[in-house]
Amino acid sequence: MRTRTLRHGLPLTEIGLGTAQLGNLFRETTEVEADESVETAWEGGIRYFDTAPHYGLGLSERRLGERLADRPRGEYVISTKVGRVLEASPATAHLRDDDGFDVPRDVVRRWDFSRDGVLRSVEDSLRRTGLDRFDILYLHDPDDHFEQASTEGIGALIELRDQGVVSAVGAGMNADAPLAELIRRADVDVVMCAGRYTLLDDSAAADLLPLARERGVGVVAAGVFNSGLLGAPRPPADATYDYRPASPEILARANAIADVAERYGVTLPDLAVAFALRHPAVVSVVLGARGRRQVAQNLDRAATPIPDDLWDELAATGLVASRHA
After folding, report:
1. Where exactly are the transmembrane stretches of this chain (predicted)?
2. Looking at residue 325, what is its pLDDT?
């Protein structure tokens, strides 16, 4: 597994494991599946693992920490996020989480990008994971709290970085414009951009990626399958795109790309992973997975060579943008 390096020397494997599924995203992940996910990733050379308090109300952090406990700490990179403080809620413990995770709602999320909230969140995450430090800390989805997050919140993360508590700081969002604004405002090292640099939506290439490259900020690409549409060789008729039903136009474009890919012996998911890694600003592609089969499948996709002629044909037909530098 190749690595790419952030500006202060932190190496990230080109493929990272996203662990929302360890938090029971959409359905229960068994303990066996959780074991398999981390074991298969490690065996395949993945050394970058991403989690967050939001994922399963802390369950993802606990499970990931348990499964990394016997691994040499200097051999992997782990990122988590701040902005949602978890608070005990006995009154709702009989209910299920209402934000996408199949877990009891015995804990609730509270938005908090204040300095105290950030510091508390990091302390709580260290306790849940059992770690003594994190490598990367991201502001998590600060869209509706951007002013505080881009001043007080990122200031607290920079303070932790300056103290040596964490190696790199930044933000993770589904929108590219605020990430670009954060780079302009603050001394960040890395940003995670979900869904905005993909085969079907390369909007981050207009501003965020050139700016990041100019400032020496690494970009971690997430959501490269656009919530499912690009995750199969052929998108089903009921495929989702950005977590909504895909339009006929988007489905037609995905199928047209798949037509070209098949002539070269590769698949839509192979292209989706490779597309993001072609850009020199991108340092890693984080892929979520559940169990041995899905992780192995993602590793195979990442290892599939894509002929230059295929990219040239996609660019010439206007199916995929040619800009990648």
Report:
1. none
2. 46
Distances (CA, A) of 239 to 116, 229, 245: 41, 5, 6
CA-based nearest residue to 84, from 6, 16, 24, 145: 145
Distance from chain centroid for Cα 86: 21
Candidates 55, 138, 197, 241; catalytic one: 55
Indicate if 55 belongs to the active site. Answer: yes
Q: How far apart are alpha carbons 305 and 312 in whole angstroms?
A: 15
pLDDT digits (tens, 9 = 90+) for 102-116: 999 999 999 999 999
* Assigned token pair, 210: 């050139």
Six token digits for residue 76? 């992997």
* DSSP conformation class of 150: I
**Domain boundaries along the sequence of the chain:** 11-226+269-316
Q: CB–CB of 322/315 below 8 Å?
A: yes
CATH 3.40.140.10 fits 11-226+269-316, yes or no: no
- Token output for 229: 């549409």
Q: Are 99 and 109 in contact (CB under 8 A)?
A: yes
Per-residue model confidence as pLDDT tens digits over 31-40: 999 999 999 9
Closest CA to 219 of 118, 138, 321: 138
pLDDT digits (tens, 9 = 90+) for 270-281: 999 999 999 999
Q: Confidence band (pLDDT; 50, 70, 90) for 323?
A: low
What token pair was written down for 286?
């984080």
Confidence of residue 321 (pLDDT cuts 50, 70, 90): confident
Q: Work out the number of other CB atoms within 10 angstroms of the CB of residue 42.
A: 18
Measuring CA to CA, how many Å separate 30 from each of 21, 23, 35, 66, 104?
Answer: 10, 10, 9, 14, 15
At residue 64, the pLDDT reads 98
In 3-state terms, what secondary structure has residue 59?
helix
Integer Cα distance of 49 and 62 in angstroms: 13
Coil, helix or strand for 6? Answer: coil
